[in-house]
Amino acid sequence: MTNALGKPIPRKEGRKKVTGAALYVDDLKFEGMLHGVTVRSSIARGRIKSISFEQPPADPTGGDSGLIPWHEFTIVTAKDIPGENYVALILNDQPYLADEVVNHPEEPIVLLAHHDKYLLEEARRNVRIEYEEMPSLLSLEDSLAQKEIIWGEDNVFKKFLVNKGDVDDVWARADFVVEGEYETGAQEQLYIETNGAIAIANKDEGVTVWGSMQCPYYVHKALIKLFGLPEERIRVIQTETGGGFGGKEEYPSLISGHAALLAWKSGKPVKMIYDRAEDMVATTKRHPSRSRHKTAVTKDGKLLAMEIDFVIDGGAYCTLSPVVLSRGTIHAAGPYSCPHVRIHSRAVATNVPPHGAFRGFGAPQSIFALERHLDRVAKTVGISPEEFRRRNFIKKGETTATNQVIRENVDLEGLMHRAFELSDYHAKREQFAEENAGSADVLVRHGSKVRTSALPAMRKGIGFATFMHGAGFTGSGEVYLQSVVGAEATADGHVKILAASTEIGQGTNTIFAQIASEALGIDYDLIEVVQPDTAQVPNSGPTVASRTAMIVGKLVESAVRGLKQTLVGSGLLKDRFSQIEFQNACRKYIEKFGKLQSTSQYQPPPGVRWDDEKYEGDAYGAFAWAVYVAEVSYDPLTFEAHVDDFVAVQEVGRVINPTLAAGQIEGGVAQAIGFTLYENVVWQNGRMANGQMTNYIMPTAADLPPIRVYFEENPYAFGPGGAKGIGELPMDGPAPAILNAIEHATGVSFNRIPLMPELINDALVVTK
């Protein structure tokens, strides 16, 4: 098949998955394999006084003593680590195993391995750790107030300052100055497959790890430091991965290291698979945030200045907080033209398990605050939310908060018009307002709890959000990564794509094959995407940041074109050729010269410049743009809000695979609805108290509305076939759109998510 782009081609790995032939990490078995578990801290912060091993587990065979002696278990503590006791990432502050102090509940302290995984659970319960408890910080506010200093000099992992124009010169001459504060909570990634790894490790062969992961070279880098081995003696292989959403970006470095340490000491293969409860309480989550906005506008509704204070809770260790903070900072001012902007942002330490990457990392938090705040600003000025945005939309030639000049044709007004038309926004806005006003029940904020004798009427509302999302690593990130992709042709004319970018359910293998097929003009079935293995594929960078299609896909396109150029240059292929001619040329080249390979390394688009010190310039090569509309109903009897209809209109460059693209939008919106209305992480002394699927509520199919997805195509010149990134965009807009709709239904402004019925109950009381 040629002309592969833009077609809903079936997934490359689809048949294996539906037939059960795909092998996930827990499907793998090795001779003599042991199982591993982690003994974790039970307190938020303290010194480790002692570790003791009490009565051993009972011997199920009876045995002489009726017990399994401790020496039959492999036991690993920090003292057994052959290299550096830190997870190599950004600040290298997180230990693989706590040694003298613990800084959060569920911090790993001891590792155990045994061939019987059921005995391991009893053994884990019989390890006793005594602590000298120390004061802890369990909230973002306490960390900012420096009630204790638990990290560095001020509890701040990272800070950024974005300055455009002169904000301080504006306040006195503004017609209106509007302030607001907005909060978002943590969110669990809830991938279908939990974290898991298998390791074989010894001094003769080095370390090999198989695991469920997004970023094999992250794990590779971390294991080099952990074992003090040269890079060629560390091998990391991604197994089939059942979802990631950012939760398998950096955390696999930890569990892979633990499995490898147990394998190193035992001399046997070791498998570690978390159950759902351990995965939920111990691994990373979306960063909670607090945003404060101060906005100056004219009486005509034109933005004059934005001052934004954006803070995220990083948890006990830095992990990926700087990159989450960076993206949240850059997106905090949104897709609007504003001459004066100041954004001050910080990631702070608390004594909860480290927070990490989650789809959109940082942008959903800061965009939620902005889009809620702009509805407040519009109301203050006295114009509609849509008219306020229309007057301030950014256009080609104007600059973002980082002074990035928009070089593409942006038509947010057109996207908004189409979204409103599809959702019947204006008619419903009027209809719902009339129906709500006609209700016999009055919603009173902080009133007395007196219920009516009749059932209160359902209330309806409709709201929207306009936003953008940058594709690829921020600023100089892609230049720093210097990602590489390889392509290799076989003697029968098949083409292998060699990249470390992982298939985690989002369609990497399929779109890479479509891009290669289109670039070479050969059938899609002739393209094979090699399973990521650091011994076989180059480092194409992590599978994060909406970069796989746009950044790595472009390298795929360039690499396969390199194969064609080699064949043409050798005289074995003409500029215009058929598939058979291509296959014959591959065979003849390999017979004559040997391997037929090509590589492509990232080069930034022309004119892209970024200043890391000033945090200014071209933050992203391209943005995706969107307008989302949510229709909600609110039940005054149960205080529940429900999304009844959702329209998602976006411009993402050229759509490579319409089915996969729509699936990305639908899945992202569903996840965002959970973030907004259902998924409430309950913290008790720094530990997730509701770490089960029975009490951490995620939306089911019955809780989700029809999600109507529409694309406007505007090809991006430096993306493969004109494509941009798409995966994170749909996480950004639903939360503010839904809360804007709830405000329309209730007349009350809610500025914290998740918006649980209890929070609505605190603000709204049904009275007569």
What does this structure look like?
It contains 19 helices and 30 strands. By secondary structure, the chain is of the alpha+beta class. A seven-stranded mixed beta sheet has the order 3-5-1-12-9-10-11, with helices on both faces. A six-stranded mixed beta sheet has the order 7-15-14-13-8-29. Strand 10 (206-211), helix 4 (216-227) and strand 11 (234-238) form a beta-alpha-beta unit. It is globular and about 80 Å long. It starts with 13 loop residues before the first helix and ends with a strand. The relative contact order is 0.13.
Topology, pairings included?
Blueprint: H1 14-19, E1 34-40, E2 46-53, E3 74-76, E4 101-102, E5 108-114, H2 117-125, E6 127-133, H3 140-144, E7 156-164, E8 176-184, E9 196-202, E10 206-211, H4 216-227, E11 234-238, H5 251-266, E12 270-273, H6 276-282, E13 289-297, E14 303-315, H7 321-331, E15 340-349, H8 363-381, H9 385-390, H10 412-423, H11 425-437, E16 442-445, E17 459-471, H12 477-481, E18 484-489, E19 495-498, H13 508-520, E20 527-529, H14 548-569, H15 579-593, E21 596-601, E22 610-611, E23 616-617, E24 622-635, E25 640-651, H16 658-678, E26 683-684, E27 687-688, E28 707-712, H17 729-732, H18 734-746, E29 752-753, H19 757-763, E30 764-767
Parallel strand pairs: 1-12, 8-29, 10-11, 14-15, 19-20, 25-28
Antiparallel strand pairs: 1-5, 2-4, 2-6, 3-5, 7-15, 8-13, 9-10, 9-12, 13-14, 16-30, 17-24, 18-19, 18-21, 22-23, 24-25, 26-27
